[in-house]
Design goal:
single chain; 68 residues; mainly alpha; 3 helices; 2 strands
Length: 68
Protein backbone atom coordinates (compact mmCIF):
# COMPACT_ATOMS: atom_id res chain seq x y z
CA UNK A 1 0.00 0.00 0.00
CA UNK A 2 2.93 2.35 0.56
CA UNK A 3 3.76 2.14 -3.16
CA UNK A 4 0.18 3.13 -4.06
CA UNK A 5 0.16 5.96 -1.51
CA UNK A 6 3.48 7.34 -2.70
CA UNK A 7 2.75 6.94 -6.42
CA UNK A 8 -0.84 8.20 -6.60
CA UNK A 9 -1.95 9.95 -3.42
CA UNK A 10 -0.21 13.31 -3.07
CA UNK A 11 -3.55 15.10 -2.48
CA UNK A 12 -4.61 12.55 0.12
CA UNK A 13 -1.26 12.86 1.92
CA UNK A 14 -1.69 16.64 2.01
CA UNK A 15 -5.27 16.30 3.25
CA UNK A 16 -4.12 13.93 5.98
CA UNK A 17 -1.44 16.39 7.07
CA UNK A 18 -3.97 19.24 7.24
CA UNK A 19 -6.48 17.14 9.19
CA UNK A 20 -3.88 15.61 11.53
CA UNK A 21 -4.62 12.08 10.31
CA UNK A 22 -2.60 9.25 8.87
CA UNK A 23 -2.72 9.15 5.05
CA UNK A 24 -4.04 5.58 5.20
CA UNK A 25 -7.04 6.77 7.26
CA UNK A 26 -7.91 9.25 4.51
CA UNK A 27 -7.52 6.53 1.88
CA UNK A 28 -9.84 4.26 3.86
CA UNK A 29 -12.46 7.03 4.05
CA UNK A 30 -12.30 7.50 0.30
CA UNK A 31 -12.36 3.75 -0.37
CA UNK A 32 -15.77 3.54 1.31
CA UNK A 33 -17.17 5.57 -1.61
CA UNK A 34 -15.96 3.11 -4.29
CA UNK A 35 -18.64 0.70 -5.51
CA UNK A 36 -18.17 -2.96 -4.65
CA UNK A 37 -16.18 -4.70 -7.36
CA UNK A 38 -14.34 -1.57 -8.54
CA UNK A 39 -15.83 -1.99 -12.02
CA UNK A 40 -13.81 -5.16 -12.55
CA UNK A 41 -10.40 -3.60 -11.77
CA UNK A 42 -8.14 -5.88 -9.78
CA UNK A 43 -5.16 -4.25 -8.00
CA UNK A 44 -2.11 -6.34 -7.16
CA UNK A 45 0.32 -4.72 -4.75
CA UNK A 46 2.27 -7.80 -3.67
CA UNK A 47 2.05 -11.54 -3.46
CA UNK A 48 3.59 -14.18 -1.23
CA UNK A 49 7.31 -13.63 -1.05
CA UNK A 50 9.56 -16.64 -1.13
CA UNK A 51 12.10 -16.16 1.61
CA UNK A 52 15.61 -16.47 0.21
CA UNK A 53 14.63 -15.63 -3.37
CA UNK A 54 13.25 -12.11 -2.79
CA UNK A 55 11.03 -11.75 -5.80
CA UNK A 56 7.37 -10.92 -6.00
CA UNK A 57 4.83 -9.59 -8.46
CA UNK A 58 5.29 -6.01 -9.57
CA UNK A 59 2.42 -3.72 -8.52
CA UNK A 60 -0.24 -3.73 -11.24
CA UNK A 61 -3.86 -2.96 -12.05
CA UNK A 62 -5.57 -5.71 -14.06
CA UNK A 63 -8.65 -5.19 -16.25
CA UNK A 64 -8.04 -1.43 -16.36
CA UNK A 65 -9.92 -0.22 -19.43
CA UNK A 66 -8.90 2.68 -21.65
CA UNK A 67 -12.59 3.57 -21.91
CA UNK A 68 -13.26 6.66 -19.77
Amino acid sequence: MRWFRDAFCEMEKQEALERGLDAYAVLEEKAKEVPVGSNGILPIFSDSMKYGKWYHAAPAFLNLSLDP
